[in-house]
Each structure stands twice: as C-alpha cells, then as structure tokens.
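User: Structure with pyridoxal-5'-phosphate, tokens only please.
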Amino acid sequence: MSFESKSHQLLSKIATNNKHGENSPYFDGWKAYESNPFHPTKNPQGVIQMGLAENQLCFDLIEEWIRNNPKASICTPEGVNQFRHIANFQDYHGLPEFRNAVANFMSKVRGGRVRFDPDRILMSGGATGANELIMFCLADPGDAFLVPSPYYPAFVRDLCWRTGMQLIPVQCDSSNNFKITREALEEAYEKAKSEKINVKGLIITNPSNPLGTTIEKERLKSIVNFINEKNIHLVCDEIYAGTVFTTPNFTSVSEVLQEIEHCKKDLIHIIYSLSKDMGLPGFRVGLVYSYNDEVVNCGRKMSSFGLVSSQTQHFLASMLSDNMFVENFLAESSRRLKERREFFTKGLEKVNITCLPSNAGLFFWMNLKSLLKEKTFEGEMMLWRLIINEVKLNVSPGSSFNCSEPGWYRVCFANMDDETVEIALMRIRAFVGRQKGKTVEIKRWNSNLRLSFSSRRFEENVMSPHMMSPHSPMPHSPLVRAT
Ligand SMILES: Cc1ncc(COP(=O)(O)O)c(C=O)c1O
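Assistant:
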C-alpha cells in the first residue's frame, strides 16, 4: 500500500479532502519552477517565476528605514529595553499601538477618505488566515459564497478546506472586461437557490487578483445594494488596495457604505494584509475589519489561532506610525509598479500580445488567444505546457483562476529585477515569433535542463512533497525551508 493511501486511512477526512487545491496547474507551475529555478549566472536557462504575486520593488525603502530606526526592533542595543515586555505580550487584541498604526495605514492607503476604528481590527496569519477566519464566523459546512470569476486560486483552500463551505462562481467574461454585473450576480444567486444551496454571502477582491483592475464606485454601490437586498454578507478582500498605480483611483467598500442610505453595515467585512502593499508576506500580518460587532467578538476569540507575533507588531507599530515614511513609500511603490507594468506590457505589444487594461496589482492578465491551437481549455493547457517547458516561464493559466473563457494567463511582474524582466521578454518574443512561423533565433536549451511533462524526472519533481509550493502544508515547502 502506498504511503498516500495509508495516510488517508490514518488522517481525518477533512484533512485529506481535496479542497486544498494542490492539484491545480497554478501550483504545478510552482513545482516546475522549484525543480529548475532561474538564476542569472548559476542557472540562466531555468524557469523564471512569474506566478508569484510578490511586491519586491521597494525593499530598499524599508531597509533604509530600518537602518535609520534601530529602536524599532527589540533585537538591537537601542531597542532591547523593550524586549521583556514584547516577548511576553500575547493579548489577542494586539498591541494598542499596532492596531492604531494599522488603522491609520489602512486609511492612508484609501487616500485618507475613510477612518478605521482600531477596535474593529482582528489579527490573523496573513490574508490567508483572515479569509478563513471570516468564513468560519459566517458560514456552516455546505453554505455558499458567490465569487466573481476569474478569482484567486487559493480561495478554495483558504475559504473552503477547513470550513466545509463552498464557492459558487459568478460568471464574468471579456465582453465587458470581466466586470461584475448585476445580471451575473442574480443568475448565480438564483441558480444556487434553485439547487437549495444556502447562499451566505459574496466575496470580491478589489483590486482584482488576477485581473489587476479596480471596481468603479457605482458598480461597487450596486454590489452593496445587491447584498443588502438579499440580506447576505459581503467580504471585500482589499489586499491589493495600495498597489493602485494609475487612474481610476481605488474606491474601498468602506467609502461606499458611507454613501448608501440604509446600508446594512453589519453585513460588510474587509480583509487586509501587509503582504502585497508593503511587500511583507513573510511577516504574516493579516487583518479582518468587520462592521459587525458579533463578528468582531467571535473573530477576536479566533485570533488565538493566528496571532501576529508581538515582535512583528512592535516593529510595524513603529514603522507604520511614521507618516512621512508611509506616504513616501506608498507613492514610490505605485510609481515603480506603474513603470514596471508599462515596460513589460510595451515589450509584449511589440509582438502583438495584448493585456487587459489594468490599473493595480502585481500582475496583468495576458491574452494569448491568438496562439491557441484550439480555443478550448485543453488548448490553453497545451500552450501553458509549452510556455513552461520551452520558454521556461511560470505564468498561470486562466483556467486555474476559474476563468470562463480559454486563452488568458496571469503574469506577475513585481517579483523580479529589471534584468530578469528583460530575459523573460526576450524569451516570450522569441517564442511568439516561432509560434507565428517567423524565423527567430532561439537558444537551444540544454536537454538535461529541459522539463518534460512525460519524463519521469519531471513527474518525480512535480509529485514529490519536497517540491511543493510555498502555499503547501508539506514539511519541505520553500516557506518552511526559508525559515
Ligand atoms: C486576493 C488574495 N487574497 C489573499 C491572499 C493571501 O495573502 P497573504 O500572503 O497575506 O496570506 C492573496 C495572495 O496572493 C491574494 O492574492
């Protein structure tokens, strides 16, 4: 009997159900990258990671702040006198100065147009933990949340795996640039009702992952009206709020609810994190901001499972209270994201590859329909395999985001340096040229390094728990190795 089937007997059904979503191509791309990661000198023909929504463009600003503020850390001679107090602190309300600083930061990210009450802030391990926490508070096993597609692949794991709730996609498509319509919301809601599914709410990401777009104010109002009428919850994952780099500006649900008459505020909950806007995913700072007192009370109790380390709270309280630093950081981060996105997409335009117009996020939504051999999801996967095997780029296929039409791919652009961007662009151009029958000189890849989906070596790498993604629970995930 294999290890896997034995462990299935020994472990709980909930732990071994397939809702972790590890089998998605989104994670397969990760594994392919992990088995052959690009390095400019050590492995120049390796896979470039473009499936990772990380914001690595502003580390220099944070490092400079750290150097200038040694007192912020309890592990420096300047800050060590706070060591005992902070090392002991474990109140699940969080350090008051941390909650104040975070409330202030959330307001700044939203242009200062709204204020947040520090007493409504709940802590969790990243937005991952925050999303699970809110679902635990709102949904019973079998209950459903509507989610506009395409959506963040790990929602299945974060929202459904341990809670037993389910997601029902709201179909959006390219005919209106994947915007959420009232009709699509009604259709998904009515369909669920007709199947006797108890719809508890709607979850949206604004700005959207994977689209990199923001929801306009009027549309957001219509969404809030929809959930008010149906008397269901609205969870807004605003984890990319601070990544907006060009107009239209970001409108948070917190602004909209102030403008709607008789808005049932206690149906509305915001998910936030410092993973994307500050580029600190390793700090695992996730937050739920709920307008519902009962959710705040219940969620507060749950915080015991995912407290942000007091050391991290202490450090961030200091950094995020530095208004000058925060304002400069947010402005500079947007500027760099804009510049990077433009550089990348202009490079693609040269070979007639277009992307969905976007104004936010750490990624863009690339349209490769013209390169599909057949306009099906199988065709999309065939092209994806070519891209990962031959072009050696890990981009994520639209189907892994539950996109309703084939041919879209998410490309992350903020997790690499300028030189890597150039190489990625060069590879894409060469590939497209070749696909379109042009004679483009491309390097012959060293056959030993070549990944083949049919080869045993690849299967071993893909299937081995040692090569799981950083979002994987396996003991040898890069996340664990990195610590
Ligand atoms: C929409 C969305 N929500 C939540 C997360 C998880 O973020 P965190 O690293 O804070 O857990 C991500 C990460 O990619 C995301 O894109």
